[in-house]
Specification:
Length: about 300
């Protein structure tokens, strides 16, 4: 129960070492010993490994998957979150699970995002099961999938490769079934001829520095890309409207009037938002007058506009 409380409530691990918490446990559960912080962390690691194995086993049994990915920064640290989704075959119920929250170091460049996403997919062995990955319209995500994302030709080539491998397996089975055992002598003869040919093969030389230069640029394999519809609508409501009114030149047109009114209105609102965020006194006054704080819109928050 203590472990579930700490995990579900996102409480610090050292809670079990706090004297007041120890008193609560000793009075509510007399005769029971409270685990120490080290034991708690070991139990959490064991629970994580069990849950990881169960989720990986479940994903291996699912034929088609989709994922979502998003990167953000908080408290001067950056993270990448990835979720997985699929439709249960029998009940047609949608299943959703959190795959990973990875710590990102450095800038959120397209190659770092690609490497992080591929590492999670490889960890769960689902690289060839993901149909699409949904992200926002950020240029780093868009470029990541433009460079490393799967194309229709890649999917067709993969299907052809699987068909070829299947045909090879079938041919091998037919060969071992219908060809008599006497062909062993022929195989040995072929091997001796190959050994004789190898004696006359030329030794090829290559520059090892060129090999390292060729492998310097990493290549990652990502699924096809799907842009979030909610974020796309948000861009329509902000960027596209901003572009539309920026071209209004005629003072009589409705766009010109909306442009003037919106600039005046948003200038006043921006002033209120800045005062609330910069002064606790103003924020308390707003809370007293309206009962709530003003919701400050941001460019990266999808539902803020």
């Amino acid at each position: 129960m203590v472990q579930d409380l700490i995990i579900n409530a996102s409480l610090p691990f050292n809670l079990v070492s706090h004297e007041n918490f120890k008193d609560i446990i000793s009075k509510g559960f007399k005769g029971r010993n409270l685990m120490c912080r080290q034991t708690l962390m070991q139990n959490i690691d064991k629970s994580f490994n069990i849950l990881f194995d169960k989720l990986k086993s479940k994903l291996n049994s699912v034929e088609h998957l989709t994922t979502t990915a998003d990167a953000w920064s908080t408290f001067k640290r950056s993270y990448l979150g990835i979720t997985v989704h699929w439709i249960e075959e029998g009940s047609l119920e949608r299943k959703s699970y959190l795959l990973s929250i990875k710590r990102l170091t450095g800038s959120h460049t397209y190659d770092i995002l690609a490497r992080s996403m591929e590492s999670v997919y490889t960890l769960f062995s689902i690289n060839n099961k993901i149909l699409y990955t949904t992200t926002d319209n950020g240029s780093n995500f868009v470029k990541s999938f433009k460079v490393f994302g799967a194309k229709d030709d890649d999917i067709n080539a993969l299907d052809e490769l699987n068909d070829t491998q299947s045909d090879n397996k079938t041919a091998t089975m037919l060969y071992s079934t219908f060809i008599p055992d006497e062909v062993d002598d022929l195989d040995n003869c072929t091997i001796r001829n190959e050994d004789e040919d190898n004696d006359f093969q030329d030794i090829s030389h290559f520059n090892i520095a060129e090999v390292f230069e060729e492998t310097e640029d990493e290549v990652y394999m990502l699924p096809k890309h799907h842009r979030c519809a909610a974020h796309t609508l948000k861009l329509i409501a902000t960027n596209d409207i901003r572009k539309a009114i920026s071209g209004a030149k005629n003072a009589v047109s409705p766009l010109w009037k909306y442009k003037q009114q919106s600039r005046t209105t948003f200038a006043k609102l921006t002033n209120l938002w800045n005062k609330q965020n910069r002064s606790s006194k103003i924020a308390d006054l707003i809370k007293i007058c309206f009962g709530v704080y003003l919701l400050t819109p941001t460019e990266t928050r999808w539902n803020s506009t």
